[in-house]
Amino acid sequence: MIYLDHQATTPLAPEAREAMLPWLDGPGGTGFANPHSPYRAGRAAAAAIEVAREQVAALLPPGGRVIFTGSATEALNLAIKGSGARRLAVSAIEHAAVLDTARAVDPQAAILPVDAEGLVDATVDWPDGTELVAVMQVNNEIGTIQPVEALAERARAGGALFLCDAVQGAGKLSPPAGADLIALSAHKLYGPKGIGALWVRDGVGLTPLIHGGGQEQGLRSGTLSPALCAGFGAAAALARSNAATEERHLAALWAEARAALEGFTLNGSAARRWPGNLNLRREGLDVARLMSDLRDIGFSAGSACASGSGRPSHVLQAIGLDARAARGSIRIGFGRYTGMSEVIEACTRMAAAAAAQ
Ligand code: PLP
Fold it and tell me: Ranges for the Aminotransferase class V domain (predicted)?
């Protein structure tokens, strides 16, 4: 398979897998120990978790703490529900983990619009009395990079908390300075599935959603997985050290793919976008047919949200596409291990299959 769906998930980095293995011991080993146990094996597992916490924290601003969760979805729920904020403002192109949670807490949540390029205006207004503003760093469907630093500054100046879903930007871009709460997911940065994190600025109080043994600083009970934490930590360290090289690699792939698919129109800003994402539309394109013609290429229909729920994409709607244009859209996502020859082959075949329809 040529895998071009890196916004959905990323392959596990060999280094992350390697870091996980000692904590997947069976009988005869010690790596399976409960990291919350007091004897030596438990303390070793706890120490590995703290190393991983530092590695993840290195992707984030100073002055806060990292709480491991089961996913970014859980981290975002903890941030929104646990903050106690009742009046919310969120961008129109947030992931469902933010949009649906915000609406569950505040059915009247203000929805901050985006322009036709998929960008939130840094001077956008939200209602007086808003207690939490959430805008993502990089959009998962169209790759646009939002002016989160400016928005965070304005939110805080107005007395609101600022939450940033940095799932698609973490380890790639600088962390969103000025945010109070930042959510990450390991599996979007070449770490394992089943673990995320919430960064909480010092002084920001949260109430837990999951009660029990009080692990994770009283904010998230449940036995941590040392293997998942170690994999997340190793992936974070690798992302940090490779960020600049990777961005150049992705920019080269992006340019090649864009040229090969010149008969398509770009969805979202060309300038303010993460080069690992290419979202394109073509008049009258039958995306289901394209996908069935190219079953050995992993890419995504742009029109359906990433959950595969069949809901039309709220992101493509928010940038002004009608249902027909959204239905004719595809999302291609490149990553660290994607080769130029794979991109050329996949995009040449996509262009030919689309033209033959
Ligand atoms: N936020 C964004 C922008 C995402 O792309 C995703 C995953 O698709 C999530 C949140 C949820 O992440 P997780 O799979 O860790 O729950």
Answer: 2-343
